[in-house]
Amino acid sequence: MVESSTHHQTRGRDVAAEEALRRRKIAHEMRAAREKLTSSTGLERSFDYELLRLFAQYRIGAALPLFGLAAAVAALAGLWVPLEPVLIWLGQAVATTGLPVALAHRFLRQEESSVSLPRWRRIFILSELLQGAGWAPIVLLLVKTDTPVVYGFVLFVTLMVAAVTATLSATVRLAVYAGIAPLALALVFAVASAAQRMDTLLLALMSVSAQLFFVLLAHRLYSSAVATLHSRAEKDALFAELEQAKANSDEARRRAEEANLAKSRFLATMSHELRTPLNAILGFSEVMKNEVFGPHASPSYKDYSGDIHASGQHLLTLINEILDLSRIEAGRYELNEEALRLSHVVEDARHMLNLRAKAKNQTVKEVVDPSLPRLWADERAVRQIVLNILSNAIKFTPQGGEITIKVGWTGSGGQYVSVRDNGPGIPDEEIPVVMSSFGRGSWALKTAEQGSGLGLPIVKGLVDLHGGTFQLKSKPREGTEAIVTFPASRVMDALPPVDDIRAA
Fold first, then answer.
1. Which residue in 229, 359, 413, 441 could disulfide with 430, CB within 3.0 to 4.6 Å?
2. DSSP string spanning 115-151?
3. Membrane-spanning residues where (predicted)?
């Protein structure tokens, strides 16, 4: 009953956690869809802001190189163009190049929640248009000269400006077009004014082709930036889910520890409260059963007294098993280790259960290796292990069945105890059930001798405390074999010798 309620509570918590996770996911998807519908780029607001922030940072970082490039172009242009128009163009280029930098600083100083993204996107596009317009006049000034080397210089300037614009403005796609368009228009005007010159046509063709290439490159850079933002958002969401899962795990562990503490207190209290009246029930029922103070007036009273005594013994055994399993699971079962012979413990257990085997006309055989040395273990725990697996064999072996007990060496130098019967056996899918607490197989449910379902879990817990292994092998209609193995480190001959100082 306790296990069932605990299972339902655990299952309820799992369902609640899954429902909360589903609701958070739906809320996140709805928020993302709402932001995409209200966004001019089709992305979430956080993505739009991050793209604008990258644009501003790139512009601020490239300010000094652009100023240096403008000064270098002006210095070289002064070789072919009069100084006055070159200086006017340089002032114009510096002003239009500094405008996006100033705007970027202003954008970054604002809080994210208060930023109007569409407005700032338009501002950045306009600033790029002005910057491109500031660089375009140098193309017109240089093309007017008749020096052939100037055309190569014009091609260099247009390529540099287009490359810088494409890389710096890639996160705002319209800004790329706005920055490159004035240069393209200047080239078209230059070609139109000197259409009869083949070198001008080639210059325009090469420059426009390069600008188209840089536009395609800007699209690739934009896609890469968006993909990076998506990956980072997924990583952040994963980290958030991991933190939430860790918080849920910590909370579940805290509740489990509280439940375990409450269980321990309950068992400690109830063991005392139940054992006290049970001792009286067992004592008085035994007196009545044995008719110590004289025969009963009715023979049925003696049978009733025997039933009361047997029921009390069963209840006391169940309480002891629950307490033992609780101590094992809580890690509070202390081993009182000493040197013992495994064969002697098995012989004592067989002798204790011999009457039960004879009552069912069962044959119990022993195959013991006489060369086994002593074992370093807890005698009470080993005795309980052997009693549990042997009593299970007797319980589920039919009338006239055969039980074989083997004690010997393992391949790794340890020792083992094997109890095999020719009972009905256990299907493979039911072995995990019978190994769990309060678990019983289908055959156990059909028989009259139903136990508490704690015998095998206690065996496994005690074997684990000794560092050994417990294995259950069974086939339907062929029988069951329970194998308990103790490691070689617990065999006395395998322990290192202790020097006798007095003998020395």
1. 441
2. --HHHHHHHHHHHHHHHHHHHHHHHHHHHTS--THHH
3. 60-80, 86-103, 123-143, 149-168, 175-195, 201-222
Rounded-to-integer distance, Cα 278 and Cα 316, Å:
7
Q: How many distinct structural domains can be found in the chain? A: 3
* Judgement on whether residues 224 and 371 belong to the same structural domain of the protein: no
Question: Are 235 and 359 part of one and the same domain?
Answer: no
**Same structural domain for residues 154 and 45?**
yes
DSSP-assigned states of every residue in 420-471 = EE-SS---GGGHHHHTSTT---HHHHHSS----S-HHHHHHHHHHHTT-EEE
- Mean pLDDT per block of 10 residues along the chain (504 residues) reads 42 55 59 51 74 89 90 88 89 91 91 85 91 87 76 82 87 87 81 61 74 84 83 81 85 85 71 75 83 80 82 78 72 82 90 87 89 90 90 88 92 91 84 75 54 78 90 86 92 60 44
Q: Is 111 among the domain residues?
A: yes
Q: What is the pLDDT of residue 299?
A: 79
- Rounded CA-CA distance 466/119 in Å is 74
Chain centre to alpha carbon of residue 466: 31
Place of tokens 């489990």: 256
Decide if 415 contacts 407 (C-beta within 8 A).
Answer: yes
Asked if 361 and 325 sit in the same domain, the reply is no
The residue type of 83 is L
- 398 three-class SS: coil
Same domain, 282 and 402: no
> In terms of C-beta density within 10 A (0-12 exposed, 13-18 middle, 19 or more buried), how is residue 176 classed?
buried
Residue 445 tokens, joined: 């449910």
Clarify whether residues 354 and 460 are in a common domain: yes
Q: 117 is in which domain, residue-wise?
A: 39-243
445, with CB counted inside 10 A (0-12, 13-18, 19+), is exposed
Q: Is residue 106 assigned to a domain? A: yes
Q: Could you tell me if 369 and 299 lie in one domain?
A: no
Q: What is the DSSP string of 355-393?
A: HHHHHTT-EEEEEE-TT---EEEEHHHHHHHHHHHHHHH
Q: Is residue 255 part of a domain?
A: no
Instruction: Give the pLDDT of residue 3.
Output: 42
Residue type, 207: S
Helix (H, G, I), strand (E, B) or coil at 406: strand
32 found inside a domain: no
CATH code: domain of residue 466: 3.30.565.10
